[in-house]
Model the fold of this input.
Amino acid sequence: MTPLTLNSKNCYKEITSATEGESLFSRKTRALNHQLFCRFCFSLSRRVDRMEHSIGSIVSKIDAVLVKLEAMEKAKLKRRETMARLLDSIADVSRQQE
Done:
């Protein structure tokens, strides 16, 4: 029996070649099964590619959200530092007036 190869363009020819003691019906059945398997693998490969593309899009959107959250956190810390400086300066002015 010849080995099955998925990337061979003449895989049908390889499969339908005569082997000892094998009928024409058996060779055609094996060729059909292999052809269906090749189609299944191709279809499965396309589906995996689409899923990878979709997942890549989702990951890039999550990354964008994380960048925005980091920017918001930095702005929050900056406001907090500014507010602390303002409160410290107000406290210094009130101490000086006493």
Remarks:
- The first helix runs from residue 11 to 16.
